[in-house]
Amino acid sequence: MKKLKISAWVLAFLMLAPMACDDKFEEVNQNPNFPEVVPAELLMPTIMRNPINDWASLAWNYGNVVMQYTAKIQFTNEDRYNWGPQGSPWNTFYNALRDVKNLIETSEVSGATNYQAIARIMRAWMYHVMTDSYGDVPFTEATQGKEGVNTPAFDPQETVYQGILADLETANSLLNGLNISTQGDILYGGNLLRWQKFANSLRLRILMRLSDRNNPSAAMQAILNDPVNNPIFESNEDQAALTYLADEPNQQPLYTTRSGSFDEFRLSENMEDILKDIDDPRLFVYAQPTNNSGAGVVSANEEDYQGVPNGLGDEEALQYAPNGNPAQGGSNFISRVGLIFACRACNNNASPIGAQTVLMSYAELQFILAEAAERGFITGNAETYYLNGIQASFDYYEERLTVAGSNYDPIRAVIQPGADYFTQPGVAYTGTQAERLAKIGQQKWIALFFNGMEAWFDWRRTGFPTITPGPANLNNDQVPVRFMYPSSVQALNGENYQAVITRQGADNINTRMWWDVD
């Protein structure tokens, strides 16, 4: 009987034990390696590093080539416009935008307005790049997978841009007078005023982008009339540019490129001609002297810098002879991309910290203001803005060459132009309005070297400089004006894909953007 009594107690305990263990079961059994809520400071580096590095990669593979800063001497498909469905920036940016959504939502709940504002600015910048790459993109239904929206509809580009501007205005308001500790910010180191300046400077870029559709005068002037509440870039120090470390995880992406991949890209003959025509010393930053010249880091002789035409076939490009003599053709006679951008395996003088990835520069902003003033959108002196933009570009490269180290001193010594640079006919702010706008456009193009695909985006609006497809191009002598949607979109979101191409136009590289009206 005693044994039976003990067994009953054991049985009762066993029956109650599961109930006790079930108390707070979900709380106790959360996997610490897969938290449902990630702290803002841990999300911040990811939503910056991955998209910004992708922006650098897009510059290298497409932006520089299509805008004829560089040309390819091997594997020339990009240069010949043999472009297929494009997964970048689509995949990288939408992956990051999911984290951005999480950051905004958690910041709204916690009241962390600093993180919410930064997330909104990054979201605006990413959608700006996305829509100018593809046209109409998923926006209002995007990143809603947790809500059950797995096949988002595409929004018209006009709607996307309205959302972008709204995000930037909200971010500006959130940041007004805000000065609190912000961790995980690899772009501005927690300086919220500079984030606010970036937001408003980006607003000015976007308003100008839409200027052929919507007169931007009132909106642009409103920003400029209230610098206290709407601050903008005031110097190179303010611009949005990611500075890299010598080692991982924040290492310059091109620095680790294979030498063979780096050497496929060379100075474009178009850029060579434009820079030489105005004796522009940025030639010494954007390109290296040819191997055949034996000049080393820099040469006072411009003839030691030689470009190759864009859009040649593989064989013609690899054997190209700048002087027309076949015996002096090939890679040793064509300039590599500038040393400051070189990879570790390419040159013993390569620096991992010299080059930055620029999202938007102070020089670009000055050229935007110059055009806006010239076209009567804003008050102000167009020539002053124009000259400020040129000088800012030279100053920027002098500073980056200094950071890169003493091996770059010979280039730094010759980067600043003489006074006669600004008074020569090809640069002086003279002529008809059309001629002045052309000079703004050309100088802006020069300054936008390696700035992602912004030069390509803006060229579609302005037409500056003249870009002529190469002789072996595969696009009927047309410069591409957009990316094709990734193949995954057709496979996984077919119904909405069909709807967007019915509205926007064929999914090819020649369908114009909504704002590209000329």
Residue-averaged pLDDT: 93
Order of helical and strand elements: HHHEHHEEHHHEHEHHHEHHHHHHHH
User: Any idea of the CATH topology of the largest domain?
Assistant: Serine Threonine Protein Phosphatase 5, Tetratricopeptide repeat
Distance between termini? 99 Å
Flag low-confidence runs.
1-21
Protein model, in words:
With 518 residues, this protein is mainly α. It has 2 domains: 263 residues, Serine Threonine Protein Phosphatase 5, Tetratricopeptide repeat (Alpha Horseshoe); 183 residues, Serine Threonine Protein Phosphatase 5, Tetratricopeptide repeat. It is built from 20 helices and 6 strands. Strands 1-5 form a two-stranded antiparallel sheet. The protein has a two-stranded antiparallel sheet with strand order 2-3. Helix 5 runs antiparallel to helix 6. The N terminus is likely disordered.
In short:
The chain is mainly α and 518 residues long.
Which characteristics define this entry?
Serine Threonine Protein Phosphatase 5, Tetratricopeptide repeat, two-stranded antiparallel ribbon, globular, 2 domains, mainly alpha, 518 residues, disordered N terminus, 6 strands, 48% helix
Write the layout of secondary structure elements.
Layout: H1 2-21, H2 25-28, H3 40-66, E1 70-72, H4 90-110, H5 113-134, E2 137-138, E3 154-155, H6 157-175, H7 192-209, H8 217-225, E4 240-242, H9 259-263, E5 265-267, H10 269-277, H11 283-286, H12 314-318, E6 357-360, H13 362-374, H14 382-404, H15 409-412, H16 419-423, H17 433-447, H18 454-462, H19 487-492, H20 494-504
Antiparallel strand pairs: 1-5, 2-3, 4-6
Helix pairs in contact: 3-4, 3-5, 4-5, 5-6, 5-7, 6-7, 7-13, 13-14, 13-17, 14-17
